[in-house]
Design brief:
Largest sheet: 10 strands, mixed
Number of strands: 27
Strand content: 15-25%
Structural class: alpha+beta
Radius of gyration: 37 Å
């Protein structure tokens, strides 16, 4: 049954029909929320008086024009939030990072060194650099990094805001006499809000109508159980929790239906008045964020240890002879720190997640938080409801079984077009027998009862034509498709004529615990006499029936009748039909107060009939039952198979009959055909779950059973908790309000975007815009792909940074051996300048890393078992990759430098013609360039741990574009004069370029050889 009951259950004579209207949200100043209309205390006034004070007709609601005027006057219906952070503050926040502080310290040290060098210059000498280029370059790169970080953060915020808009809560209101669904933020004072089970209440309001309405107000009053509501005017002012005729913003409907006049919105609601006491809590870091913090910490500690070892070794072997030695040593420490930490990592990670989540939204999977992606890719069990998720949710009544026989209805979908066909008994002619004629009459009565005990609505919409052609007319199901299917079937056989004179006066609503509903209606053609009409699960409804209607006569129901009905249920369920029984009971009076056993309060009024089901829902007369078909989605079977291939188990949890559940599960491949025939070993019911003796038995059952039928909401929660105890990462779908606890408890709560209630959507981490199981599997695929890409650019960035650390460390420790330091010289000579390392980390590394965030999968991500959340993002295998590539990268960089320094291993003797300072500048340019191109090739290698770089080499055009951009930037650093000065580079010859590219290629060759060995070991 649909959780969102319509106004029909409140005032059946009102004809609420028409289109949904939303209207663009008007931009309004925050202080407009203080301009709420003056009004009387709504809880102490009659509802009609409240409506008059707000200038609204309760029967038609506000007009769209008036609603827009009030929205402009009073402001949006939202709580005041903290003022937006100014852009300049967001920009400055980019500098609030320990690494930036370290680089600023390096800037200060560089300035001090420059001043000392200028001060100690001999008279008449040039005195070193004209300007402190190192300090200037560090500051400029910090500014560029801040700009890039600001832009990337803004894009991520835009992505999150777009997701928020997609999941914005909505509300049913009465506008221009029609029910419209609008964004909650557009609700205004005077709006008529239509409430149903599972709805979040959008604003404070005075109830005008209530049918068995109960509201959970724990978030506002602390009341632990849902509170019953009514429309009675209070005699005196009472505390919030006792205002039974009021509903409040932020609470939710757990049962029944209602209609309320909005009295306050935004900050003038009760929640708004205490908003200052509601402190926003920061979200805990996700496992991925914690892993990044851990990696940064490890790298920082490693760098500090390396720097300390180098400084102590230099102090012991050479000592610090002057201030220059001290400054050089400090700059060495800064260079190591700059080399070790990938400065742009946090911003790149955020952008990659934002891009991935945006792609998932395009596939109808709306992830509410960026970092939920890592959990999504780890799902090992998907628990799904059947109706609408595994099936099409296009309910059609095909069979009607009555005490006299069975009929079939033709036609599909929601168009009320079709006819009733008698199902002849074996050996009979096509001419209907008297029994078949009786069955047809009983079928009409059965469908009439089902249409009366109903909260659905069938809307007729006229298309672009003049409405005269059948093609211009479309039919829309409003409410639960199961209920609408009964209305469609009743219209097909003209059963609607049987209930045209009835007016509903009360309802005992459907709940997942009761598995039935009933209405009390008066017959205006029979002096207003009352009748109870009920429908529900046949095996449940039979327990409340004592009589049966056969061939126009009512007689006591026998045990044989019950067995025959239950046998028909089994037969239809085995054919994948969903069954619903119908029954009724004439009350023989026009007043509920005259019904024996009905409770009357002190004021002489009948107590809410929803609390008197034991009086009204007994001694019912069974009329028949319907078989409703909901075909499986054709694409779901392939999705279930793909999930199975990915190591993900699919579990069906439904309220349907076990045979129906088994048949659908078998059709979809959740269980095999043998299992469908042997229900005892493949399907468990809620009753059987309750009979399990302890937690261990429950866990054993959920470990082996994948289909659950006739379950209540508490069973769903227990199943989720049991699967989690077994170490599974559980995704759980839900739509009704009672599903919210299970959805919230699951590792990945999934709400239905079409049929889901607002409460469930708020509890979920992901929303399916199309209510399709296949979308969950596609989201898992996307989640795994995103997580793989995060690992790719982490492997790339960290191996590149480790290569830089080993280059600096090796260059200092082997300075004399490589020719970096002249024989007999004192002090420290760093192989690469801090400005060069910053250029690599912040500019040339960033573009390839971002491009790897959208890299196509290099292998089949759905051919792997799910990753455990306890597994490290950067595991031992990846650390080995990182260190191996880092060592190779450092080795080829130092060899390239050595080739251009006198006194090294591979020296080109032509360099002897220039001085050591010129040699060092050229060697640094070589090492700088080799390192940049080695990292570009490393970007290609890092796309997979063991797959060849040549597999899908050109699949990522963005990566090749990023590599081209990085190459152009490096060429500019080498050939643009002012950049030569800033970064300590000189132009290179063609031969030097050949050396750079040849040495850089060694990184790719070494990586390919290692991958070849790994693949060979795996094959063994």
């Amino acid at each position: 049954m649909d959780d969102r009951k319509k106004d029909q259950s409140i005032q059946s004579h009102a004809n609420f029909d028409g289109d949904s209207a939303t209207g663009d949200r008007t931009q309004i100043r925050q202080d407009q929320q203080n301009q709420q209309p003056p009004q009387i205390d709504p809880s102490l006034a009659d509802a009609q008086a409240v409506a008059a004070s707000l200038g609204v007709d309760p029967n038609t609601g506000l007009s769209q024009a008036e609603a827009e005027r009030r929205l402009a006057q009073y402001g949006p219906n939202e709580l005041a939030s903290a003022p937006p952070v100014p852009k300049w503050k967001k920009f400055l926040a980019q500098f609030k990072d320990p690494l930036v502080y370290l680089l600023l310290a390096a800037t200060g040290i560089s300035l001090i060194a420059w001043f000392i060098e200028k001060a100690n210059a001999a008279p008449g000498a040039e005195g070193g650099e004209i300007l402190p280029f190192d300090a200037i370059v560090i500051v400029l790169i910090l500014i560029v990094n801040a700009v890039l970080g600001y832009i990337q953060e803004s894009k991520a915020e835009e992505a999150v805001e777009a997701l928020s808009q997609m999941t914005a809560p909505q509300t049913n209101v009465l506008r221009d006499g029609k029910i419209a669904r609008i964004n909650t933020v557009d609700v205004v004072p005077g709006d008529m809000v239509v409430l149903g089970e599972g709805d979040s209440i959008p604003a404070d309001g005075r109830l005008l109508a209530a049918a068995s309405l109960r509201v959970a107000e724990a978030s506002l009053t602390g009341e632990s159980v849902p509170v019953g509501k009514n429309v009675d005017t209070l005699a005196e002012a009472k505390a919030l929790g006792d205002r039974a005729n009021m509903v409040f913003n932020g609470t939710s409907v757990t049962q029944g239906t209602g209609r309320a006049i909005v009295t306050s919105t935004g900050m003038r609601t009760q929640v708004g008045k205490i908003a200052d006491l509601l402190q926003a809590t920061d979200d805990d870091d996700s496992p991925l964020q914690k892993e990044m913090n851990y990696v940064s910490k490890i790298l920082g500690i490693a760098v500090c240890i390396i720097a300390a070892v180098v400084l102590v070794a230099l102090a012991l072997t050479e000592g610090f002879n002057d201030i220059h030695d001290v400054i050089d040593s400090l700059l060495l420490s800064v260079s190591l720190a700059v080399a070790a930490v990938p400065e742009g990592l946090a911003a790149i990670l955020t952008v990659v997640l934002a891009l991935g989540v945006r792609r998932m939204a395009e596939h109808h999977a709306i992830v509410k938080k960026l970092h939920s992606v890592e959990t999504l890719g780890s799902a090992s069990v998907i628990c799904s409801d059947k109706t609408g998720t595994l099936t099409r949710n296009e309910m059609t009544v095909e069979r009607v079984v009555t005490p006299s026989g069975e009929v079939q209805l033709t036609g599909t979908g929601y168009a009320p077009e079709g006819r009733m066909i008698a199902i002849p008994d074996a050996g009979l002619t096509s001419t209907p027998s008297p029994a078949q004629e009786a069955a047809q009459l009983e079928a009409v009565a059965t469908l009439a009862v089902g249409a009366l005990a109903n909260d659905g609505e069938l809307r007729e919409n006229t298309g672009a034509g003049d409405g005269s052609a059948a093609s211009d007319i479309t039919w829309e199901a409003v409410g639960d498709p199961t209920e609408v299917s009964l209305i469609v079937a009743a219209r097909k056989v003209k059963a609607d004529r049987k209930y045209a004179n009835y007016t509903r006066i009360g309802e005992i609503p459907f709940t997942s615990d009761r598995k039935r509903m009933a209405v009390v209606a008066q017959d205006n053609a029979d002096a207003g006499r009352l009748t109870v009409f009920a429908k529900g699960a046949p095996d449940v409804l039979l327990g409340y029936c004592s009589r049966i209607a056969v061939n126009g006569a009512v007689r006591p129901m026998t045990q044989g009748d019950r067995q025959q009905i239950l046998a028909a249920v089994e037969r239809l369920s085995a054919e994948a039909y969903r069954t619903l029984g119908q029954a009724y009971r004439p009350l023989g009076t026009a007043s509920l107060a005259d019904v024996p056993g009905v409770a009357i309060n002190a004021a002489g009024h009948v107590v809410d009939i929803a609390e008197q089901s034991d009086v009204l829902e007994n001694d019912l007369i069974w009329v028949g039952m319907v078989g409703i078909i909901d075909p499986p989605r054709t694409e779901v079977r392939d999705s279930v198979a793909e999930a199975h291939r990915a190591g993900i188990r699919t579990v069906m949890i439904t309220g349907d009959h076990p045979l129906t559940a088994a048949r659908i599960a078998s059709d979809l491949g959740i269980i095999d055909a043998t299992g469908a025939a042997d229900l005892g070993s493949t399907v468990l019911t809620g009753t059987q779950l309750d009979e399990l003796p302890d937690e261990a038995a429950f866990d054993n059952a959920t470990r082996n059973i994948s289909v659950y039928a006739r379950v209540a909401p508490e069973h769903k929660l227990k199943i989720v908790e049991s699967l989690q105890r077994q170490g599974n990462i559980v995704a759980m779908t839900g739509d009704g309000v009672n599903d919210a606890p299970a959805v919230k408890t699951a590792d990945i709560g999934v709400a239905m975007g079409i049929t889901g209630t607002e409460v469930t959507k708020q509890s979920a981490k992901m929303i399916l815009a199309d209510d399709n199981f296949s979308t969950i599997v596609e989201a898992v695929r996307e989640g795994r792909g995103i997580f793989d890409n995060i690992r790719k650019f982490l492997r790339y960035l960290l191996s590149s940074n480790v290569g830089e650390v080993f280059t600096v460390f090796g260059g200092v420790m082997l300075a004399g051996f490589l020719g970096i330091a002249q024989p007999g010289s004192q002090g420290v000579t760093v192989p690469l300048l801090a400005t060069q390392l910053l250029w690599i980390n912040l500019l040339t590394d960033a573009a390839p890393a971002l491009a790897m965030g959208v890299d196509p999968s290099t292998d089949d991500v759905m051919a792997r078992k799910p990753r455990k959340l306890t597994d490290r993002v950067i595991d031992g295998q990846m650390w080995r990759d990182i260190i191996f590539i880092g060592i190779i990268m450092a080795a080829v960089t130092l060899i390239g430098m050595d080739m251009h320094l006198a006194g090294g291993l591979f020296t080109d003797r032509s360099v002897d013609a220039i001085g050591h300072d010129a040699q060092m500048t050229e060697a640094r340019t070589m090492g700088f360039t080799i390192l940049v191109f080695a990292q570009m090739l490393n970007a290609l290698c890092s796309r997979s741990h063991d797959q060849s770089v040549f597999v899908g080499l050109f699949a990522n055009k963005w990566l090749w574009g990023a590599i081209a951009l990085s190459a152009l930037l490096q060429v500019a650093v080498i050939y643009v004069p002012f950049l030569n000065t800033a970064f300590g580079t000189v132009p290179l010859s063609a031969g030097a370029w050949a050396e750079c590219l040849g040495l850089a290629l060694i990184v790719l060759v070494a990586s390919e050889l290692r991958k070849f060995v790994l693949r060979a070991m795996h094959r063994r």
